[in-house]
Write a structure and sequence with these properties.
Strand content: 25-35%
Order of helices and strands: HHEHEHEEHEHEEH
Structural class: alpha/beta
Number of strands: 7
Shape: globular
Helix content: 25-40%
Low-confidence stretches: none
Largest sheet: 7 strands, mixed
Mean pLDDT: 85
Strand order of the largest sheet: 3-2-1-4-5-7-6
Radius of gyration: 16 Å
Number of helices: 7
Distance between the termini: 31 Å
Length: 220
Amino acid sequence: MNFYFSDDTMKKKQLEMFLQQVPDFSKPKPFLEQYQTPATIASEVLFFAYQYQDIQDRIVVDLGCGTGIFSVGSAMLGAKKVIGIDTDADCISVAKIFANSHNLNNITFISEDVSDSVFSADTVIMNPPFGAQKGNIHADQVFLKKAIQNADVVYSLHLTKTLPHLKRFAQSLDAEIEILTTFNFPIKGQFEFHKKLRENVSVSCLRFVHSSAEKEEACK
């Protein structure tokens, strides 16, 4: 089932309400930095991609898909094919059950390490690990490199304070970077090292376009 409202505001609200049903992590793993993307933020990111015409009738990959919020959202917005990839088999199981219960048959979920993934996509939409944990430093770069090298366009969430570095990193991968918006992302105090029940961090939604893809689009 897809949303077929002519009014994008209504479509976005319906999408947000649907995404609120996506299950959270039952046993989040700190070393994977598993924080569920809120439905309000996920719907906003998805609608940026939708309005840029990067979802409908496209092949979309959700790297580090968790329980599948970007995967199911892309399917609901008319993606031709969606692939959700995550190293956590428990999350993949939850994502499959939810997608199947809503007859979202154009989604394939795969349990594998992102660094080992082989795919070709029109669009990647993801909320990668922020790389904030000691044993997970630069994990965001692993995701970003894989995404940019295998898709024409990438939508990704990153800590706002890392933007100067990300701009240099994107340039090294021959990609252009655009800052779409910034969110206050809620981090629940769900792990032993958390000192607060909840903390908001500044996270930016970025759009990366590989230079070769940008040149091809300009020639059309």
